[in-house]
Structure formats: structure tokens, C-alpha cells
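Troubleshooting log. The previous structure file for this entry was overwritten by mistake, so regenerating from the original sequence record. Sequence copied from the archived sheet and checked twice against the printout by T.R.
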Amino acid sequence: MKLVDMGITEFVDVLGSDAPAPGGGSASALAASVGSALTMMVAQLTIGKKKYAEYGELMKQVLKEATEVNQALLEAIDKDTEAFNQVSAVFSMPKETEEEKAARKEAMQKALKLAAEAPYDIMVLASKAITITGKAVGKSNVNAASDLGVAALNLKSGTQGAWLNVLINLSGIKDEAFVAKYKQDGEALLQASCDRADEIYQAILEIV
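Regenerated output below.
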């Protein structure tokens, strides 16, 4: 059964169990998906309202974009766990001969790269969602302004959480060029995303 198909209680029970996955990466994707879902809600609470008629088309676009990124984030919940499971599977590979040890080492490096890429993809999606959320600030139903603020907080949390999962997997990767690229790109993405999320939150504080 896919994680995304579980009920909330069931997912939280699995998350809180001694099973190593799902873990922080899937939880980060979930947090970000909650954030983008709130942006979707705010857009729908604005579309069709006479008071916000001038922003109707913008909110339709926000809804469309947020819906697309939300779907990708939901899929990322399982993708992150699947990537981690590939790392776990390597530990069951034989390591008696030198050939087996070499094959195991190669498989581990490949699995770790996938495990680093999965949460990085979550960061990219969350960053897109933050940008989309920013479009709605000051142009959406004021009665739902607090929900946009919560959206920004969840998206920031998802971004930061995903970054931690990128880093912990990069720590075991021997490919220095791969590590350097993901650290450089990830740090830049993290900074830009968190700064934008903070701007949204501060703007909402002035509205509510």
C-alpha cells in the first residue's frame, strides 16, 4: 500500500514506529503538500467572489499551478521512502568475496545518490509552491489570509526538512563532484526559498 493512500492516523502510526521508513524525507514532502493544499484552498475561496473579481484570473492560475505541484509533492512522499528502501536493500547483499564487496559498494553509492536526489526534488517542488503562494498575498480572500501564512510555514518546513535529508545522504557519497554540485545548488535553493517564505509570513502578519 502506498503511503499516500493511507489514512492520517495510519500514516502517523507508521511514521512513529521503529520502521526506518517513512522518515524525515517523506514527512517533509507531506508538510510541503499540506502547504500547497492550503494555497489551493485560498485560491478557491477567492475565485468567483465579487470583491476579488480583478484577481479572478490570477487566482485561477494560482489554483492550477498549486494543484500541479501538490500532486507532485504527494507522489514525492512515496518516492523518498522508495529511495531509502533501495539503500536498505544494499545491506542484504552478500559481501563474502572481493567481487561481492565491490558490487555492494557500487550499489550503495548508486542508492545513496538516489536517496539524495529524492529530497532535493522535494526542495525544488516546495520552492515552486512558495513562489505560487506568494502570488496570492494581498490578492486573495482576506478572511483566509492566515491560511496563506500557514502555507508558507509548512512549505518552509518541508524545504528545510528535505535539505537535512539531502545532506545526510550526501555524507556517504564518494563522488566529490556530485556532492559539491548538490551542496551548492541546495544551499542556494534553501536560502532563496526560506527568504521568500519568511517574506510571505511577514506580509500575512500585517494583514491579519
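The chain has a mean pLDDT of 96. Archived copy saved in two places this time.
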